[in-house]
From TrEMBL:
Pfam families: PGI. It comes from Marinobacter zhanjiangensis. Belongs to the GPI family. Keywords: Cytoplasm, Gluconeogenesis, Glycolysis, Isomerase. Catalyzes the reversible isomerization of glucose-6-phosphate to fructose-6-phosphate. This is Glucose-6-phosphate isomerase. One of its GO terms (molecular function) is isomerase activity. InterPro entries: G6P_Isomerase (IPR001672), G6P_Isomerase_C (IPR023096), Phosphoglucose_isomerase_CS (IPR018189), SIS_dom_sf (IPR046348), SIS_PGI_1 (IPR035476), SIS_PGI_2 (IPR035482). It catalyses: alpha-D-glucose 6-phosphate = beta-D-fructose 6-phosphate. PROSITE patterns: P_GLUCOSE_ISOMERASE_1, P_GLUCOSE_ISOMERASE_2, P_GLUCOSE_ISOMERASE_3. Its EC number is 5.3.1.9.
Length: 549
């Protein structure tokens, strides 16, 4: 029976999951592991160089079939095909969401308005390649003929987080002699700190903006242009120092960027999904185009897995459904990303935008308010640092925040016994979250320390760790362009699947517009020293403070 089209919480598959959750409420994961020694093998998936262990979840043999039944009832297979084939699934902007076309095989045929877009994607990659080679080969120089040594990428949101995260994730592969810096914020500190580190004659600015109308990016680009002028560059010289990646070539031209230095973006790519396009230029310039192409290949391997693997063996689908399981049936409203890889320290930031801007929605695709929870708060950080900070809350707090542990089997920096120690820490955390410590165990421990009975009574409750806290562990051999590409694509598809279940448009972001709209008159009033009498007293009071009134 298909129940596609009926409101989500009325679907029998949803009701079946509710009943299943009720039946599992008192089951502790400790018991599940004790009763099934095969749990690790049973609940694990390998794909595109990644291995997912999802055995430390509140699931038994019935859970995945029930969750995948919900996915089918929500039309997931058709929705997936619609995304890959270029249907305008972004229905509020009437556009496809074709980030997968950016990494599709060269001979693919993916049509937008009847036209195959793959040749243009491939031509842009070739243009990027020759540009990168000309920079690396010293053919493109600064206005005094110097080799370009520093790239300053100016962009924010999706035009910043992805490239920054990837260049950091693959830092061991970075080329000698070229440094990449990022400026995103309108806080003057951001650009000032970067400009202090670079020289005008050897710096190339990349203006990264799909719209070429983002306030922060334009203001920082204008400031960079002025800085070059102040340092002796003529208007003609500026052409040596600016490149734009944008879907708004006219605005880039107006800014003074030459046509041959403007790389295209397309409205069928969302900003937070755009690192695979020319927005990835900082990646290609830092790591080389061969590594950039390998990154795309890794993402493509994950795309193929996602598109073709059965739902129950499908890594992004399983991770997405487990997320739905906790958000909608166990009351979780956050999800934790714990990267046990220093180079992946920016991954939580990228995933925050990817997931929270995609699924932080309150109405469904048809504009009806939802009566179920949607995207959780995504947060996280790097292990083991977090263990000495916020893991306390994960272990004993009242919040349920399922965690993804992400760790390579091998380190790029295999010093002393560090990687084994890091790995042990990672395993100990997921084990502690799963098994916890019972009151009996806490009491025995205290008694073994020789404490008197009243002290044992007093301290035991503080030492109890409830456990039964869910986590996934994602491992891969060593961070490579392919594994990192696959990892990021995995989370993109996880986000997409959840959007399908929740019947959201995961590809618009109207919520961010209001702040931009309100910001304009506030800035004008701050500059002009006028306060709108109709303003709320908080905003008016703070404006007066800023102006020193
Ligand atoms: O690339 P741009 O057009 O400059 O946009 C940069 C970012 O700003 C916007 O406010 C959106 O919320 C983001 O999705 C976008 O990635």
């Amino acid at each position: 029976m298909t129940t596609e089209g009926s409101p989500l919480v009325w679907k029998p598959e949803w009701q079946a999951l509710r009943e299943h959750q009720a039946a599992l409420t008192d089951t502790h994961m400790r018991a599940l592991f004790r009763d099934d020694p095969e749990r690790f093998h049973r609940f694990s998936i390998q794909a595109a160089g990644l291995r997912l262990d999802y055995s430390k979840n509140r699931i038994n043999h019935d859970t995945l079939p029930l969750l995948t039944a919900l996915a089918r009832a929500c039309g997931l297979p058709d929705a997936t095909e619609a995304m890959f084939s270029g249907t305008a699934i972004n229905n509020t902007e009437n556009r496809p969401a074709l980030h997968t076309a950016l990494r599709a095989a060269a001979g693919s045929d993916i049509r937008v308005s009847g036209e195959n877009i793959v040749p243009e994607v491939q031509a842009t990659l070739d243009r990027m390649e020759s540009f990168v080679e000309r920079v690396h080969g010293g053919e493109l120089t600064g206005f005094r003929g110097d080799t370009l040594t520093d790239i300053v990428s100016i962009g924010i949101g999706g035009s910043y987080l992805g490239p920054r995260m990837i260049t950091e994730a693959l830092k061991p592969l970075a080329r000698e002699g070229i440094r990449c810096h990022y400026v995103a914020n309108i806080d003057g500190t951001d650009i000032s700190e970067v400009l202090r580190q670079v020289r005008p004659e050897t710096t190339l600015f990349l203006v990264q903006s799909k719209s070429f109308s983002t306030q922060e990016t334009l203001a920082n680009s204008q400031l960079a242009r002025q800085w070059l002028r102040d340092n002796g560059a003529s208007d003609t010289d500026l052409g040596h120092h600016f490149v734009a990646v944008t879907a708004n070539a006219a605005a880039a031209r107006e800014f003074g960027i030459h046509d041959d230095a403007i790389f295209p973006m397309w409205d069928w790519v969302g900003g937070r999904y755009s690192l695979w396009s020319a927005i990835g230029l900082p990646i290609a310039l830092t790591l080389g185009m061969d590594h950039f192409r390998r990154l795309l290949a890794g993402a493509r391997a994950m795309d193929n897995h996602f598109r073709h693997a059965p739902l129950q063996d499908n890594m992004p689908v399983v991770m997405a459904l487990l997320g739905v399981w906790y958000v909608n049936f166990w009351g979780a409203d956050s999800h934790t990303i714990l990267t046990y890889d220093e180079y992946l320290k920016n991954l939580p930031n990228h995933l925050q935008q990817l997931d929270m801007e995609s699924n932080g929605k309150r109405v469904d695709r048809d504009g009806r308010p939802v009566d179920y929870a949607t995207g959780p708060v995504i947060w996280g950080g790097v292990g083991a640092n977090g263990q000495h900070a916020y893991h306390q809350l994960l272990h004993q707090g009242t919040v349920l925040s399922p965690a993804d542990f992400i760790i390579p089997l091998n380190s790029h920096n295999p010093v002393a016994n560090h990687h084994a120690t890091l790995f042990a820490n990672c395993l100990a955390q997921s084990q502690a979250l799963m098994q916890g410590k019972t009151e009996d165990e806490a009491r025995t421990e205290l008694q073994d320390q020789g404490l008197p009975a009243d002290e044992v009574d007093r301290l035991a409750p503080h030492k109890v760790v409830p456990g039964n806290k869910p986590s996934n562990t994602l491992v891969f051999d060593k961070a490579s362009p392919e594994t990192i590409g696959a990892l990021v694509a995995l989370y993109e598809h996880r986000t997409f699947v959840q959007g399908v279940i929740w019947n959201l448009n995961s590809f618009d972001q109207w919520g961010v517009e209001l702040g931009k709209q309100l910001g304009k008159p506030i800035l004008q009033q701050l500059n002009e020293g006028i306060t709108d009498v109709a303003l709320d007293s908080s905003t008016a009071g703070l404006m007066k403070l800023f102006r020193g009134e």
